[in-house]
Each structure stands twice: as structure tokens, then as C-alpha cells.
Amino acid sequence: MQKFTCYVVLLLFLLCFFQAFSWSQFNQGENYEGSSDLINLEYHMGPVLASAINLYIIWYGQWNPTHQATIRDFLDSLSSSSSVPYPSVADWWDTVRLYTDQTGSNITATISISGEFYDSGYSHGVYLSRLSMQSIIKAAVTSHSRPLPLNPHNGLYLVLTSQDVQVEDFCRAVCGFHYFTFPILVGVTVPYAWVGYSGTQCPGVDGMISVIAHELAEVSSNPLINAWYAGEDPTAPTEIADLCLGLYGSGGGGGYMGKVYKDAWGNGYNVHGVKGRRFLVQWVWNPVKRRCFGPNALD
After folding, report:
1. Are 31 and 247 in contact (CB under 8 A)?
2. GO cellular-component terms in the record (predicted)?
3. pTM over 0.85
4. What residues does each domain of the chain span?
5. If you average pLDDT over every residue of the chain, what do you get?
């Protein structure tokens, strides 16, 4: 959740583009690839997102259409067809789907972009708190111009802030987080996630993709902060992506992200997406193998 630091993402991408750079000093998360005895991930009887997800994107601020297209293609890749080469984003999502609720229902395989809202006028300014995200969602679902539906049944709201927006603790402690709305503020309880974009302080849209993946995995497996997490404190849970911070391939750990593929320009990636896209997304904890895992794993 909030533990996913921008330092990890920044240093990962420095590794991809400048391979001589050493970043172990910045890696603030423990890595558990291949280790099961350190993990006490438990199910706390709450729901997971088992129904087909209607994803609603709120573009807050001014956005580059090229960056928006990249993000949309990643989100569309989560439920992509078999025509996408292996390992795919959908194959990565298969690990997330291993988590179940009380009834034995798995997290859904279907995630559809069901609406987009453009808050290009910065309705709540350019300096935001974490609680501001709920007010932004409220503004999007009550707008007089093309509002998003308020969907408490299978809606998931993704707030993406542009590079000129400063969010509390952004790039100092967090790149993204997830939570759920309060009925007193929004009207109903719906899960949501926020991810920020910064073209200067943190990596750009490529780094943002991995944070989006991180938060989607965790909001799906722990939407009301009472389902899958490790630790005793539900207000600061260690979730399925937190357990694998900085791990993107086999052999990762101790500041090394693991073995990934390289494109013709030397850029790292580990999954394929729609339209020939390639993405670098962090691994998540596999509850069956009891270790961090991704579809590009060598074993």
C-alpha cells in the first residue's frame, strides 16, 4: 500500500537505462524471492474483487495524450487475449487471481475501462492531501458534464495526477496508495487507488505503470483493508506487492531486480502487452509457491 517508495522505482529505472549504477542503498523494502519462512500473509475474512471490475479513470490535471495511451494500453493488457505473446500482463495478473474470498471465489480475470473523467481544471488545486482523492472522486461522479457513474457493486476508481500536482508525501514516501471511500464524503463505499506522475522527481510514465500494477494488485486482494495482508496492524498492512518490492525477475533480491528481457535499445521489460507494448512490472507474492513470482520467472 503506502510502503511502495518512489526510491525503489527510480533506482530500478536507473538500472535499466544506466546499468553501472548501484542502488542498494535506496532499497527500503525487504525482498523475499525464494523465501517462505519469513512471510505470515494471512486472510482476514474480508472481500476481494471477485466480480468483473469496471475501472473508472480520473485524469487529474493536464496530461500528455501519448502518456495516456500508454497507460490505457497497460490497463487493457490486464484482460488481453491469447494473441499477446507470453509472458504477458494478463499472465502476470494470473498470480494476483490466486487470491480468494471466504466463498473460494478468485479475484476476477476481467478488468475493463468503463469510463474516464478529465479534471483538467484542477478542481481541488495542485496541492493535495490523501483525503483529497475522495473529494476528487466525488467531483467526478457528481459533475454536471459527463460524470462518472457511482458504482458500489463492481466499480474501482483510479485517480491519476499529472506531473504539476503535488500530493502529500509524493516522491518522498509514496508514489501511490489505495483505500476505500467514506460514505459521508462520497455517498457510498468504493475502492480506489491513486498514482502520481512526475517527469522530474521520479521516473516518468514507464515507472508509473509499475506503481499502477502494484496498487491494482493490492486493491484487488485487500480492497477494504480486511482481506489479504501480513502484519498485525491493518492501518499499515504489508500487502501482496509490498512483499516483493524491487523484484522483477529471477534471482532478484538485495538490491538486484532480477533477470529481465532487454529491447533493442537496452531498456528492460518483463511482460508483453497489447499493440506490441512491453512493460516492466514488479512481481507479487504467489500464495501457492509461497514466494515472489512473475510470468518471466526462470523456475
Report:
1. yes
2. apoplast
3. yes
4. 6-293
5. 87
